[in-house]
Design a protein that fits this description.
The protein folds into three domains: about 1-35; about 45-55 and about 125-240, Rossmann fold, CATH 3.40.50.1000; about 60-125. A five-stranded parallel sheet has the order 3-2-1-4-5, sandwiched between helices. With about 240 residues, the protein is of the alpha/beta class. It starts with a helix and ends with a helix. It has 13 helices and five strands.
């Protein structure tokens, strides 16, 4: 009964609009506008890499690499929170240049910095629960994309190592476009490159600022916190 009243209300609105405007607008077009200008269904799922699809835990990695022989607390910010790390993500320097720059800035840590860069790819292992979602969504017919801040050399390593990258329809990595999330340019690059409508996209990232950047572009977002929460949110948004 409620559905009948709702439809009658729409039709009543359509005929009143047509009568008042007197422009001969066809009822079918007005109905199409009413029904199709609402929320578009999600068709494209966009994944971040680090801490969403791929493990990225610098402190655990450093502790494992050096054990108790070295205080890794001072090494973590020097490498993983340095301007050079962001420059690697942006694609304006390479890894060898980063090692040289950081070694010159911190000569007392130069050997440790070199060891870190020689070994840090080893922590880039899949988060299996997320990879299972990639496979499931691919089978369900969704188009899948990657949007991530990532170094050239590191991305080449993970893409070559993990076959599930073949399930993605497209990827935009920060070093390729010289822009970092949450800068608008990187989201614009994704939408433009693959001709995507923002309203049809859902973006999953562990950083809230990156989700907010996507939402400002009209893209829906889920902040990844843990596998169980992501699964619940995906089911809620997608309805399956």
């Amino acid at each position: 009964m409620e559905m009948v009243v709702f439809i009658f209300s729409i039709l009543n609105h359509v005929f009143l609009y047509k009568y008042e405007e007197g422009k001969g607008v066809r009822v079918e077009k007005l109905l199409e506008k009413v029904f199709l200008e609402g929320k578009k269904a999600v068709q494209n799922i966009v994944f971040d890499l680090g801490r969403v699809l791929i493990d990225y835990d610098p402190q655990t990695f450093l502790d494992s690499l050096f054990g108790r022989t070295f205080d890794t607390n001072k090494l973590k910010p020097v490498v993983f929170q340095s301007p050079e790390w962001a420059m690697l993500d942006r694609g304006v320097i390479n890894q060898a240049q980063a090692v040289e720059r950081l070694g010159n800035q911190y000569p007392e840590l130069a050997e440790h910095i070199r060891i870190v860069f020689d070994n840090w790819f080893s922590m880039l292992t899949p988060i299996e629960s997320s990879v299972e979602w990639v496979t499931r969504l691919h089978k369900q017919g969704y188009s899948l994309y990657v949007l991530s801040n990532f170094h050239r050399e590191a991305f080449s390593y993970v893409r070559g190592k993990y076959s599930w990258f073949q399930l993605f329809d497209g990827m935009v990595i920060s070093y390729q476009v010289h822009a970092l999330k949450p800068e608008p340019a990187i989201y614009e690059a994704l939408l433009r490159m693959y001709q995507l409508e923002p309203e049809s996209c859902l973006f999953i990232d562990d950083v809230l600022a990156n989700i907010e950047g996507a939402q400002q572009m009209g893209i829906k977002g889920i902040q990844y916190k843990n596998p169980e929460q992501m699964s619940r949110d995906l089911v809620e948004v997608l309805g399956r």
